[in-house]
Design brief:
alpha/beta, 6-stranded mixed β-sheet, 5-stranded mixed β-sheet, 7 helices, about 30% strand, globular
Length: about 280
Amino acid sequence: MAYRPDMTNAGLSPSHPVTVMDELGELRETHIAGERPLTVYVDKCELVTLMTLGGHPELLTVGYLRNQGLIKDIEEIVAVQVDWDIDAVAVVTRHGVADWEAKLGRRTVTTGCGQGTVFGDLMDHLTGVKLPAIEVRQSVVYALLRNLSEYNEVYKKAGAVHGCALCRNDEILMFCEDVGRHNAVDAIAGHMWLNAIEGGDKFFYTTGRLTSEMVIKVAQMGIPVLLSRSGVTQMGLELAQMVGVTMLARAKGRHFLVFTGADRVVLDERPADRAHRRPGALAG
């Protein structure tokens, strides 16, 4: 069995009912997304405060530590203890964090929502990363998008959240929602790390935009295919080209755009009706 630290199970309800007035002046019940600060302490040293739904605080913490390169070996983590009374999580390590001051000293402000700081040089995280070139079939993309429509539970109730999914072809292995897409990515990274799940045959789906940090995290997780219903940034595109991530964006219904890895995408289920295409629109 894979090693697991001593961990609490302190997940919170991700949404909360409230009474509102609609545009007709009528009262109705709806849901709003939860949002809580979670301050991460490592060996009693304050590291960062993440804004989160609180659904998977332990996985979020473990994945954050991994994706920021602060702890390399899961067995170095002795315990992860969440206490919502003080909005904090205490991480205890076996031997401490090497070069702690140096790692905290280099900070790059990112475009991430829910968390805005990455420690260390972003490019350091891509050193030695080599992703497998796997085939992506159009029919599988369509099937996956249909399956994903059954998720996004908090978004359907309350909005204001992002969702991410770890997938094998059209099978959804884990789905996570949070107020920030990077929180959701980190929670899935924590799940993969704790369960020794390899990423080489997986797809990663996000509702958020594909920024440089999103590409870096997916590459660190060893996942070669990145799919989003949102758009792409320039640096995200450049890094995806550099590490070999196949990137599909604006993916919704039967439409998607391939930004990198077009030679690995097999168009085996082309939409028959293209009469509705806007003049000048890119082929999907």
